[in-house]
# Entry
Amino acid sequence: MFNPAELIKKKRNGGALSREELTALIGGYVRGEVPEYQMAAFLMATYFRGMTPEEAGSFTELMLRSGEIIDLSTVPGRKVDKHSTGGVGDKVSLILAPVVAACGVRVPMISGRGLGHTGGTLDKLEAIPGFQTRLDSATFRSVLSDVGAVLGGQTETIAPADRKMYALRDVTATVECIPLIGASIMSKKLAEGIDALVLDVKTGDGAFMETEERALALARTLVDLGTQYGKKTLAFITAMDQPLGYAVGNWLEVRESIECLRGKSVRDLMEVTLVLAGAMVWLGEKASSIEEGMKLCQSAIWSGAAYEKFLAMAKRQGGDTHVLHDPAEYPPSAVQVDVPSRGGGFVSGISARTIGMLAIELGAGRKRIDDVVDPKAGMLLRKKLGDRVETGEPLLRIFTDDRGAAERVRREIESCFQLSPSPPALTPRVSLMVDDAGVRPWVMPAFL
# Structure
């Protein structure tokens, strides 16, 4: 007879669960027969004990098969998606999806909410008034067919085991576990009916995988899982040693994305975006190389086609395009406070993780599953790595409706910035590429 406690004990003691045992556990959880506290205990045991490759493969498949797999066979062309393992200020998907769609590649994207100290694409999209992320399969397919890109969230029918587990991992400190991350990402992505996948695996202070070694282990796991299912899968190792771009917080990140789609150069953000987008265009067979795909993506931005595609997608998903045309019309935060630097020098370090946690304190994320997010809350950085700072210059601006939170965060912010008398050596934003052939360095093209 099925006894969840015995399976938890087995995993706690380092044992490997069989496919039949995992089937009973996941099926019972989806049906409500395995309570949250027992699944939380299993997740924690897995966090410490890990999974064998066979367990991870079975776990992923069972998560995938817990719901429907969207049939996109009636939508012409190759369907290619991108996924990020999570970072602070990571609004790449909002820029990338319309850019790639403007290049003629279909982009079906099922995204998630904020997890731990990192922001979530769905929370950013829902900062746009009226934008609908809960789409049934027919609507998802229709938007993809009509617009070329669709950004939605998990429904009750798409990998429901992961949908329940995702929120539980966020509040039980079990996020940074490679087999759990792998199963969560790939179950959603494989359920989309994609042909190929590009992965952004982040490393550094603001990433779940803080070391390059762990980032590579996760990248290999994800590429192996994608390859097992016959999907061409590429992963890039990218830096998360500072927030990506300048905006941290849902509406602030939407606004920065709009600016980039209109041609603004935010160097670190656009380096990562164009590499990932170029790879998608190449996998979508609209370019002969990643580098050519990057050039096509640049052209889609310069011509205005990518911005128009974003507006079309937002409108089709119920979004108020008025505030996208004129972001100044968005309701302002009641409290907007600059945080000045107490010293001078060059920014040599920024704790992205701490900034992510402080953004949650302002209301931009969740401490508990049922917390309500303030879409306006967040921060706008004034200085990034390598920038010169004079005493009294603002390091960033705080946005919130909570005066008490603003004061608490203001007192903590300066500790996130390290200053030095000379400029630091800046590292590339994209360092390595991983595919089924192995790992190799990524060299940024000279034209970028």
Notes: Residues 239 and 429 are 5 Å apart (CA to CA). The chain has a mean pLDDT of 94. The first helix runs from residue 4 to 12. The chain has 17 helices and 14 strands.
